[in-house]
């Protein structure tokens, strides 16, 4: 329950173009008024992440009548697939999810929210699908090879540049053979030059994994409407509330969610409670967790990946 309203998480599978099953979750109101289509934000997790990372997005967006869909990319979480490709094949996973949602009569329009690898995935897909309403891009990298070179420089005993370049060329051949993509093609600056979807960039100022200049370069090259927000923290630190507030405002502006009367959601013996009971309390309760703070229980959504 959030702000007196019940929500539920529906788990499902979507099959990508390679025939791999993607494990997905959709956070939606427990009761949707008949004939009401709601906008949806697809949350795209980062490398080593999974769809559980979207729980925070659900808490932020559901009260604004924006549903949240999330997935385990191929090779991540519980989805099928052997390799993580840092955005290249994940773009095709995202395409499969968008196509699935467009067959859902309860979805009005679609936006994207990606973090790290998920931000790169969102940007690459957004350049191919101008119907996407908007994107939040949190700490994307501008060029994979440049990122690899920077990470080597952080080692206690840096390697000579020519040695690193030879190693990258060797890695390039291995990745081409095993994962069927070229790491040289992961250049989001070039993608940004042909993407017109409204975008909100975010990056932590102390990020020492993907340095802030990556977002700066992408934002500078980006041809669509854009804004960038910097905040304290590192690559994996919790994001500040003002950043989440900005995201909420951004999605509200690009998605224009409907104002649904509260009496559709607040639990009363004559209204929504009966509908919630039809859905089943276990189905509703598996979306929430209870934390005791002081003398009250705080109830928040979560996702089991």
UniProtKB/TrEMBL annotation:
Top-rank taxon, per record: Eukaryota
Gene3D superfamilies with a match to the protein in the record: alpha/beta hydrolase
The Serine aminopeptidase S33 domain, residue ranges: 40-148
Pfam families: Hydrolase_4
UniProt protein name: Serine aminopeptidase S33 domain-containing protein
Species name: Triticum turgidum subsp. durum (Durum wheat)
